[in-house]
Design goal:
Shape: globular
Radius of gyration: 24 Å
CATH topology of one domain: Spore Coat Polysaccharide Biosynthesis Protein SpsA, Chain A
CATH superfamily of one domain: Spore Coat Polysaccharide Biosynthesis Protein SpsA, Chain A
CATH class of one domain: Alpha Beta
Largest sheet: 9 strands, mixed
Number of helices: 14
Helix content: 40-55%
Order of helices and strands: EHEHEHEEHEEEEEHHHHHHHEHHHEE
Distance between the termini: 63 Å
Oligomer: single chain
Length: 369
């Protein structure tokens, strides 16, 4: 059985840290908590779980803080989490099994990262990250902001998931760091350019974000998943700016890097829906449902684009074409995922009236045609 050091960096996490550590403590042999300047009770909470609490002077560099935390680890493998992450009970059980069975030739274990959920608790946004790494390899973190763990060797893709429960309290932090670095004349890596553009977009600086997405794509040095995502985000910027021509060009640009993804198909579907070209819109929303994203894809996955959202939009298209039976069927398909969505509820009532649905044993039925 391997031993595991949990390494964390924290600041003012009194509302989250206990929940995080309680969810994972059974699976780890050492807990390292590096505090970067808390002014609340974070350290007191950490002391309930560990004596290994260290101070690190914040220098606007997440990689430096994480590397310092890794340097304190003593066990065979290092697991990293943020304070607003947890392991659900099923995932804790899977981690305990992995701990007792892991081949020590494995250098890194990836885990899914569930970032967002709908009202029914379904995962709607997810990606994959290296989470558990062999300490002796001395893998290091890179990047002051949106840092990543640079690993190599034998990598195992697990079915364990880490669940994010954050509320993005300091939403300006990363943008401010990038702006300070830019003002200081620092050179940005392709990854920096991409994530700086993301921060600008998230703060609704769409024109400036578009400039940086274009720069990122033009330099041609990005990871393929970031290239694909950048095209979609660039399209979103042009949509907000009212430039439909550049919006469409940006959507299509994603196809240079690989087969269409569900989110790109949904963007294409929406483009034609806005032009009242319902047959073209139908084609693209159907494609979104038919395309499958590999289970172990490292890119960000917006799962709504391959589940309920295309069905809801297909309902709209078929309604506009007067094909109410098909519209109803797709709304019902969307309702399997989103039973409380206002549009789904409204569509159901509207289409039942259109179709004159009869109630049989308490269930709505579509008349045979």
């Amino acid at each position: 059985m391997i031993s595991i050091s949990l390494c964390m960096i924290v600041k003012n996490e009194e509302n989250a840290l206990d929940r995080c550590l309680s969810s994972v403590q059974k699976a780890v042999d050492q807990i390292i908590v590096v505090d970067t300047g808390s002014t609340d009770s974070t350290k007191q909470i950490a002391r309930k779980f560990t004596r290994n609490i260290f101070d690190f002077e914040w220098i606007d560099d997440f990689a430096a803080a994480r590397n310092f935390a890794f340097d304190q680890a003593e066990m065979d493998y290092i697991l990293w989490l943020d304070a607003d992450d947890i392991l659900m009970e099923d995932d804790l059980a899977k981690l305990l099994v992995l701990k007792s069975t892991l081949d020590t030739e494995v250098d890194s274990v990836t885990m899914k990262y569930h970032l967002a959920f709908d009202a029914q608790g379904n995962v709607v946004s997810s990606l994959r990250r290296n989470r558990l790494v062999k300490r002796s390899n001395q893998f290091r973190w890179k990047g002051a902001v949106h840092e990543y763990l640079e690993v190599g060797g034998r990598i195992l893709d697990s079915d364990i998931a880490v669940t994010h429960c954050g509320d993005d309290r300091d939403s300006d932090r990363n943008l401010n760091i990038y702006m300070k670095r830019q003002s200081a004349g620092e050179s940005f890596s392709p990854r920096d350019i991409y994530y700086f553009a993301n921060e600008l977009k998230d703060h609704r600086f769409f024109e400036m974000a578009a400039v940086y997405y274009q720069r990122f794509l033009k330099e041609g040095m990005g990871w393929i998943e970031d290239n694909i995502a950048a095209c979609g985000k660039l399209a979103d910027c042009y949509h907000e700016l009212g430039d439909t021509s550049m919006e469409l060009a940006s959507i299509l640009r994603a196809f240079e890097y690989g087969p269409p993804r569900p989110d790109a198909c949904c963007r294409m579907g929406y483009h034609f829906l806005q032009k009242n070209d319902y047959n073209a819109s139908l084609y693209w929303y159907k494609q979104a449902l038919e395309i499958s994203v590999p289970e172990h894809s490292w890119g960000m996955q917006n799962l709504s684009c391959s589940t309920w959202l295309p069905h809801l939009q297909l309902c709209v298209c078929y309604d506009r074409l007067g094909l109410y039976d098909l519209a109803y069927r797709h709304n019902e398909a969307a309702r399997q995922y989103q039973p409380d969505h206002p549009s789904v509820i409204s569509n159901k009532a509207y289409l039942e009236d259109k179709l004159g649905l009869a109630q049989v044993s308490g269930a709505a039925t579509v008349p045979s045609t």
